[in-house]
Amino acid sequence: MKKQSKSAPRRPRSDAQRNRERILEVAKAAFTRHGADTSLEEIAKQAGVGVGTLYRHFPTRDALIEAVYRSEVEKLAAAARRFGPTIPPIDALRAWMLLLVDYIAAKHIIAPALNSVAGGPSRLYADSRSLIQGALEELVKRAKKSGQVRRDIDASDLLRAVIGVSYVGSGGDWQQSARRLVDILIAGSRPA
Questions:
Q1: Do residues 149 and 140 lie in contact, with contact meaning Cβ atoms separated by under 8 Å?
Q2: DSSP 151-168
Q3: Which domains does the chain have, with CATH numbers?
Q4: What is the C-alpha to C-alpha distance for residues 192 and 182, in angstroms, rounded to an integer?
Q5: Residue 168 near residue 178 (C-beta atoms within 8 A)
Q6: Cβ(54)–Cβ(23) under 8 Å?
Q7: pLDDT tens-digit map of 124-180
Q8: pLDDT per position as a tens digit, 24-65
Q9: C-beta atoms surrounding 164 within 10 Å
Q10: CA-CA distance, 179 to 160, in Å (whole number)?
Q11: For 38, phi and psi rounded to 5 degrees?
Q12: CA dihedral for 91, 175, 101, 157, sign (positive or negative)
């Protein structure tokens, strides 16, 4: 009998990966427009895949909703890694915080769909919080090391300020207010 070797999990084919990403993109837009009860068959159709392909990637509605949310969090964390080596530290911090505003806006929109997930969204939020906090801490650490921000700046304070404005602002213009706040925070973070 031939012994099977244990190897790393096989990477998905590039077309399968593209299908998955397209489904997530379409699902995010659909959940945003129509909520958690959006037809999965319609999502598959708009993504240009068969319903079997959708279910192969996401066996349940909850799995798809969770994947959409996780994808947004992963994009935000990846942006911090991408900005790090390519943009001056203070500019990277500002650019990432502006993306955070966009992420919070998407989270507000998809929250009703997340609330339909079995067990509620609290587990998802807890997992995402550490990724987001870690990404911001790295950007702040890099900016401190470069001398572009004050030594007493705390990543948690910046995060609370941006998240806070998203909950205080009840009008449709909270995003513009949050973007202005990012610029105020960046200006106030610079050394005297």
A1: yes
A2: TT--HHHHHHHHHHHHHH
A3: 15-59 (1.10.10.60), 68-189 (1.10.357.10)
A4: 18
A5: no
A6: yes
A7: 777 788 899 999 999 999 999 999 999 999 999 999 998 888 777 556 678 888 899
A8: 999 988 887 887 788 999 999 999 999 999 999 999 988 998
A9: 12
A10: 14
A11: -55, 140
A12: positive
Which amino acid makes up residue 69? Y
Query: Which amino acid makes up residue 133?
Result: Q
Q: Output the pLDDT for position 10.
A: 61
Which tokens go with 45?
């159709």
- The residue written with tokens 């067990």 in the block is 119
Cα(102)–Cα(34) distance, integer angstroms: 19
* C-alpha to C-alpha distance for 46 and 26, rounded to whole angstroms: 7
Taking 80 as the threshold, does the pLDDT of residue 123 lie above it? Answer: no
DSSP codes joined into one string, 73-137: HHHHHHHHHHHHHHS-HHHHHHHHHHHHHHHHHHHHHHHHHHTTSTT-SHHHHHHHHHHHHHHHH
